[in-house]
Amino acid sequence: MGNMNFCSDNVTEVCPEIMAALIAANEGSAMPYGADECTQRLEAKFSKLFETPVTIFPVATGSAANALALSAIAPPYGAIYCHAESHINVDECGAPEFYTGGAKLVTLGGTDAQINPSDLATALEKAGIGIVHHVQPAAVSITQATEAGTVYLPEDIGEIAKLTHDRNLYLHMDGARFANAVDSLGCAPADITWRAGVDVLCFGATKNGAMAAEAVVFFNQELAKTFGYRRKRSGHLFSKMRYLSAQLEAYITDDLWLKNASNANRMATKLAQGLVNCPVARLCHPVEANEIFVEIPGSVVSGLIADGFQFYVWQQATLPIIRLVTTFNTRGEDVDAFLASIRSHSVVNVTE
């Protein structure tokens, strides 16, 4: 039986290389709270990966990474500008507001879940900088790849970064699917982070084969000075940190992170190409990473579910919109089986 679960890239097992690294890390004793040898190696390895000195902090979840990173760059009276569909706004249960001590998320629109620089410029011009009655602009947060499965080009990020830095704000990147974006663009990790003006990146691994591991990567190292205390206070300073660090080390060794993302992206492209040729399916966004949003009739949704496929119904409008996510271990035959099922139910729908 193939993999019929297209709900999320969180549904997979741990990839073999990372599981092997965890087993190896489980041998013998190691110093706690990040004093182990594996954690001590990470900073140099991430600095090499990004071609610049960085300060990094392993944490276990993306929500913790985002919320704590934002707490380092936004005061309680600050405003954090983000897309209305961003994970920090929709899916983190107020964690950014909590850990910043009350900073306000100011949401912006924009097609395909991307912030439009002109909208950001307008919002900042109207922000009331220096007026005591208003929250004060502190940071901008972008998601790469976005919640719609699209990617920001390096020049897009650079334009947003210029608007951000010209006003003495900081730029945060939610990179839960950062590997998928790098693979999609075929660029160096540096090109869409510090070279483009990103100050702090939440570097995701969990969605791409890890058990539970993310890294908060500071390119602006001055911002990292208080982060260790913030991480400890939030309960994310793991005593057995080696188990987080071993995952991250294995993840970036021999480009495993990009190999995993490449498979996920290729399977999404294959799936999207098949859906384009399906008469009852309509893609809602360009497919640039490993998420697909497709509008299909309710009877086809029911047929797919009856055939055993799993996915999220993202939106109920005139026709349902479903989200399909491919992963590091999605196989071509899994995609073929899904497309065969949707075609069979589409024939019935068209003739009705």
Order of helices and strands: HHEHEHHEHEHEHEEHHHEEHEEH
Reported by name, the CATH topology of the largest domain is: Aspartate Aminotransferase, domain 2
**Count the strands?**
11
Q: CATH superfamily name of the largest domain?
A: Type I PLP-dependent aspartate aminotransferase-like (Major domain)
Strand content: 15-25%
Low-confidence stretches: none
Q: What Rg do the Cα atoms give?
A: 21 Å
CATH architectural grouping of the largest domain: 3-Layer(aba) Sandwich
Class based on secondary structure composition and strand pairing = alpha/beta
Q: How many separate structural domains?
A: 2
The percentage helix is 40-55%
End-to-end separation in angstroms reads 31 Å
Mind describing the biggest β-sheet?
Answer: 7 strands, mixed
CATH class of the largest domain: Alpha Beta
